[in-house]
Design goal:
Largest sheet: 6 strands, parallel
Number of strands: 9
Distance between the termini: 34 Å
Number of domains: 2
CATH architecture of the largest domain: 3-Layer(aba) Sandwich
Strand content: 5-15%
Number of helices: 11
Structural class: alpha/beta
Strand order of the largest sheet: 3-2-1-4-5-6
Radius of gyration: 21 Å
CATH topology of the largest domain: Rossmann fold
């Protein structure tokens, strides 16, 4: 009997290794096992995480030792950006044969640059699923996390182009919508506006509002503040690496926001300034994808 949700088709990859079984990695493992029960899903993480992943039937094989990925034909680095940068140079000695290697990092320029040193037998494709939840970790992982969500890939040439095609089919099997971007630079500029600027803005806003209103004042807050600052629940440890590896693009996005805020500050008594900003905001918000408003979650 084929499990509910299984594609019934042969797996795109026979042996899938997921390095890092947090919210994203754990959800990839759960979704892959559901879509292709005949594939082998290998998990690498700390023992306490691996035990939870095994209980949830997210993985078939578990180890803290990276050598377990040796025979994988797909290796997914589902770790924070800084750890991905450390892991990539070790892949040639960890993976014995030809394989596709991808990641789920929120910035791509530094990762793609390091990946250029990989041998040709390891076809690397930078990836970034735009999906998440209010809480992180394997406990929050779920197989439908990527359903209808964009999954960004960096276009490649030669073997990388073939790998992009296979990965696109793979993430479609997980329920995602693959989107190919022309370069790592294009990715980092786009997510600086779509994801990283909203995160920093929400965190800064919550910090200022909290200091200004105090605990008692916050008890009177309505849904507007709650909805606007939802991203402020994000942990700083994930975002340190993201900010450091995309500082130029994030800095430019912040400069543009600061300029608008300064215009509002100077035009508080100027109706046309208020009208201009609010009109532009209303027009642009109408273009937001109604099926995917969560372009970057609190937890990576």
């Amino acid at each position: 009997m084929v499990p509910e949700g299984a594609t019934g088709a042969a797996p795109i990859f026979e042996r899938i290794a997921v390095v890092g079984l947090g919210l994203i990695g754990g959800s990839i493992a759960l979704a892959a096992r559901k879509a292709w029960p005949q594939a082998l899903v290998i998990g690498v993480d700390r023992n306490v995480v691996l035990e939870k992943a095994m209980v949830r039937h997210a993985i078939d094989v578990a180890s803290e030792d990276l050598m377990i990925i040796s025979e994988a034909d797909l290796v997914i680095l589902a770790a924070p950006v800084g750890q991905i940068l450390d892991l990539l140079p070790t892949m040639p000695k960890r993976i014995a044969a030809d394989a596709v290697v991808t990641d789920v990092g929120s910035t791509k320029l530094a990762i793609v640059e390091v990946a250029r040193t990989l041998p040709a037998r390891l076809a690397f494709v930078g990836g970034h699923p735009l999906a998440g939840a209010a809480h992180g970790g394997i406990d929050a992982a779920r197989p439908d996390l990527f359903t209808g969500r964009p999954w960004l890939f960096i276009a490649g040439a030669g073997e990388q182009a073939e790998a992009v095609g296979r990965l696109s089919a793979f993430v479609q099997g997980l329920g995602a919508k693959p989107v190919t971007l022309p370069s790592a630079a294009a990715h980092d500029r786009l997510v600086a506006f779509l994801s990283q600027l909203p995160q920093l803005t929400a965190s800064a806003l919550m910090s200022v509002v909290g200091e200004g209103a105090g605990e008692g004042g916050l008890e009177l807050a309505g849904r507007g503040l709650v909805d606007t600052t939802r991203l402020a629940a994000s942990p700083a440890d994930i975002w340190r690496d993201i900010c450091a590896t995309n500082a130029d693009e994030i800095g430019s996005a912040l400069d543009e926001l600061i300029a608008v805020l300064q215009a509002l500050r100077q035009g508080l008594h100027d109706g046309p300034t208020i009208d201009r900003v609010f009109t532009a905001a209303n027009e642009w918000r109408a273009h937001l994808n109604p099926d995917f408003r969560l372009l970057n979650p609190p937890c990576d």
